[in-house]
Design goal:
Layout lengths: L5 E10 L6 H17 L2 E5 L14 H4 L2 H25 L3 E3 L3 E6 L2 E10 L2 E7 L5 H7 L9 E4 L2 E5 L8 H9 L4 E6 L4 H18 L2 E10 L8 E2 L4 E3 L11 E4 L6 E8 H10 L4 H4 L10
Parallel strand pairs: 1-2, 1-10, 2-3, 8-9, 9-10
Antiparallel strand pairs: 1-14, 3-5, 4-5, 5-6, 7-8, 10-11, 10-12, 12-13
């Protein structure tokens, strides 16, 4: 596997639309992937629950029912994945598909994101820690652990939305060699967006790595799950040597759909972890020292 030390990554601020038919979804997704790759992006990140717009294909009554939405999307999962795999191959890129609630059994539903490349599906990542809405109302459950994806774009890890707010999850991936964390998100308030953003920036600081945040944006009042969406796409790094002093490599405007693109330099991660102005990644274990005085 030939490693690309430098490449462009694109994060989507993605609107959830009412779709007339499957072909409308194909056209929309193809246009988004084409646009990002035309700008030179090799890694594309779509948001958490971006696939929820496909519930509209079942009509308003089904789309307005939380459990029926899950069933409709679960039934379409194979078709959704086939489209993403085709686009990754056709446009020669790596695509994190928008996550969806997937029914694994009559009583178990997870929030699953899938990663695709030119070589096919690289695997999936389930959300680890559920929000109150997911666990108390929607009955979506935690997945079966974190995964590391070895790709020509480096080692990638995925923290779905709320997961990015928990330091030990990001640390587990960083210690497994992850250099780029993907954070697909879906938040319905400005406070929720900022919680994820602050978490994402903190993960970039303490692990001295890139963090890519892709949110849903806009209104979808026909869906009780994703009716309001607030966010701005951005790419973060540690505010340290070789990175912007703010830690923000690129960011979009709040609630404005479109791609945000920045260059990823894996050598910069290696250098800052070895010889940064601070060494958060190396010094992490020191916070657990016992007082020996």
């Amino acid at each position: 596997m030939q490693l690309m030390n430098r490449y462009r990554a694109a994060v989507a601020a993605y609107p959830i639309d009412w779709l007339s038919d499957w072909q409308a979804y194909e056209r929309k997704l193809t246009d988004w992937v084409s646009d990002a790759t035309r700008q030179g992006a090799s890694l594309l990140v779509f948001p958490e629950y971006a696939a929820m717009e496909l519930a509209s294909l079942a009509g308003k009554a089904v789309a307005a029912d939380l459990q029926q939405q899950i069933d409709v999307l679960s039934e379409r999962a194979v078709q959704i994945d086939a489209l993403h795999q085709d686009l990754a191959q056709r446009f020669n890129c790596y695509v994190l598909a928008g996550s969806l609630p997937l029914r694994l059994s009559p009583t178990r539903v997870v929030n699953r994101a899938r990663l695709f490349g030119p070589e096919g599906c690289l695997g999936y990542q389930d959300k680890q820690i559920m929000t109150r809405f997911e666990r108390e109302i929607w009955r979506v459950e935690s997945g079966d652990g974190l995964r590391v994806f070895d790709t020509p774009l480096g080692r990638l890890g995925i923290l779905i939305c709320y997961d990015s707010e928990f330091p030990l999850l990001g640390r587990q991936l960083a210690e497994a060699g992850v250099e780029v964390l993907l954070v697909p998100s879906c938040t319905d308030t400005l406070a929720g967006y900022w919680r994820v953003r602050i978490g994402a920036m903190a993960r970039a600081l303490e692990n001295q790595c890139y963090v890519l945040q892709a949110p849903t944006v806009g209104e979808a009042d026909w869906s009780p799950a994703v009716d309001e969406n607030v966010g701005a796409a951005a790419i973060y790094g540690p505010p340290d040597r070789g990175f912007p002093e703010t830690g923000v490599l690129a960011e979009g405007e709040l609630n404005q759909p479109g791609w945000v693109i920045a260059e990823i330099d894996l050598e910069a991660v290696a250098q800052v972890r070895e010889a940064g102005q601070v060494l958060n990644f190396k010094h992490w274990p020191e916070q657990f020292k016992k007082d020996e005085r």
